Amino acid sequence: MPRSAMLVAVFLFLSLGAALASAQIPDKFTNLKVFPADTPKRELVDRMREFTGALGVRCNHCHVGQDPNTLEGYDFASDDKETKRVARAMLQMAREINSHLLPTTGRQSPMEVRCVTCHRGVTKPQTLDQLLTAEITKGGVPAATARYRELRQQYYGSGSYDFGPRALNSVAENLARGQNNVDGAIEVAKLNVEFNGDKGESHLGLAGLYATKGDKDAAIACIERALAINPEDGRAKQMLERVRSGK
């Protein structure tokens, strides 16, 4: 099939699916508790699409029903799902922030809080270090390492999580200082170097852990890698001096 014909077929398929789904949405709504009772159908549907996009979910995340493609048989008025009740609370929270709290800052036209502000395409808004720390609590460092790889494969470049060196450095620091697990922290720092080896702070994070463990040579090697990336890094220079002097 020619590419142009294929694109037309895909467009028609998606349009048909949207039409079928729209046909299942009532023209008038009941049990609206945050939106005005007379909210037009088009406006409400647009807001629902905004929510699903922000959380990376489909209609059945909050509404009672099975097939999110057709919406056939959906009970939109039902409050049975806990996620719908939470969504209402979140909408009221955002409304309070935007309507009453942001104006108190005195700034002109401050950026409004929206679902995507925190969720960024994921259902549960967590920072990467929070998520990985929770994984360590449940399954140890190997589980967190595996989870990091999965998340990076799925979300890298989307803005959902910060895959830069700071998140893993934070996890490693918490393991070393908070849980006295230097070996586990080193594994996390090695993961950081694997994926963020072009950033000096990744190497410095690993260097500090090696220094804590007493592995002077490994620490120096890591610091030298950081200085190779940025020869003017004052923090790296100071760390190298301390490690060499044994202070």
The share of residues in extended strands comes to under 5%
The percent of residues in helical segments reads 55-70%
Q: Average pLDDT value?
A: 90
Q: Describe the main β-sheet briefly.
A: none
Compact description:
With 247 residues, the chain is mainly alpha-helical. It has two domains: 117 residues, no CATH class; 118 residues, Serine Threonine Protein Phosphatase 5, Tetratricopeptide repeat (Alpha Horseshoe). It has ten helices and no strands.
What would your notes on this structure say?
The chain has helices at residues 3-24, 41-55, 82-101, 115-119, 128-155, 165-178, 182-196, 200-213, 216-229, 234-245. It starts with a helix and ends with a helix. It is elongated. Helix 5 (128-155) runs antiparallel to helix 6. The chain is an all-alpha fold. The chain folds into two domains: 3-119, no CATH class; 128-245, Alpha Horseshoe (Serine Threonine Protein Phosphatase 5, Tetratricopeptide repeat), CATH 1.25.40.10. It has ten helices and no strands. The model is unreliable at 6-20 (pLDDT under 50).
List its salient traits.
247 residues, mainly alpha, Serine Threonine Protein Phosphatase 5, Tetratricopeptide repeat, 2 domains, 10 helices, 64% helix, elongated
